[in-house]
Design goal:
Elements: E1 23-32, E2 35-43, E3 49-58, E4 61-65, E5 83-92, E6 95-105, E7 121-130, E8 137-143, E9 149-153, E10 162-168, E11 171-177, E12 184-190, E13 201-204, E14 209-211, E15 214-222, E16 228-235, E17 243-246, H1 257-260, E18 268-276, E19 279-286, E20 290-297, H2 298-310, H3 325-337
Antiparallel strand pairs: 1-2, 2-3, 3-4, 5-6, 6-7, 7-8, 9-10, 10-11, 11-12, 13-15, 14-15, 15-16, 16-17, 18-19, 19-20
Length: about 350
Amino acid sequence: MKLKRPVSGPIMSPTGNGWESKAVFNPAVFSWEGNTYLIYRAQGADDISRLGMARMRTPTEVGERKAEPVFGPDLDSEYEELGVEDPRITQVGNEYFMLYVAASRYPHLVNPPPHPREEEWRVRVSMARTADFESWSRYGVIIGHIDSKDAALFPEKISGNFCLLHRVIPQIRIAIAMDAMNYKERGPVFGLRTNMWDEWRVGIGAPPLKCPYGWILFYHGVDNQKVYRLGLALLDLEDPSLVVARTTEPIFEPEESWEKQGRVENVVFTCGAVEGGEDYWVYYGGGDAAIGVANISKQEVWEWAKQELAKSRYHEFDQTGDVTVEETLERKERNRKRGF
């Protein structure tokens, strides 16, 4: 099971516009008013990350690209000193919620510091909401107590709560909130796998996509050679803190020269996937410099999910704690009633 490149090379590259003259990468993708749009991370000579917007003519062709950023750092926020990064957009009802990373440096306790050290990045999960992609309601930092990134909302509430995935090294974690703002941690979902393609880092890619057999999660993994690849995880439909399966092998990895030799070598990194026709279309940043697209048959993904769900157990490396016989039998009965 592999993502395929329908076209060779990037579908979007930097322009002469100052704010996106150095790099465009890591796009969110969403459907709005009958069209597919990207909101992407861009950097210019100042290395500040801002967000641009483009409308797709086809899944592989950009139709229109806005000349100015649609979202930039809040100048009054110390957390956005270095910009806003890696957007992920989820529609909940009639509104669109954008999760992004607020990037800054940890401030020194004493200036100038008596014992200078290497600058440390500070990253915080932040959120904004919009209905028209022109005016934004900024929530700011929503997980403030720890460095965290790679965050996205589920497209529907779980047991009456907004449900959010995010990454605190070394694990992807889950949190809930009744009001979309005040999140409470509910623990790890999955982490690293020794001697595998995701042994050094994991992080979510696209916001979860619902299918009959669970939540489909495109995620990225990094090995000890710092090669970024993509894989799939299947989360339980009713309780997405439970992992049903993860792909043993990556479904996508750097192959083309612009993915292997960009500003950062050996990177394919997604922040968004969308259903289009019979496929999932995954938009990604290559080499932290340009944007590409890959696709995979929904039928192929669903067949994998169906087979994994039929096993009625959770892989040991995915789950904290043991799965009892009673839990397994209960799961089988639930699935039988749901027709699986």
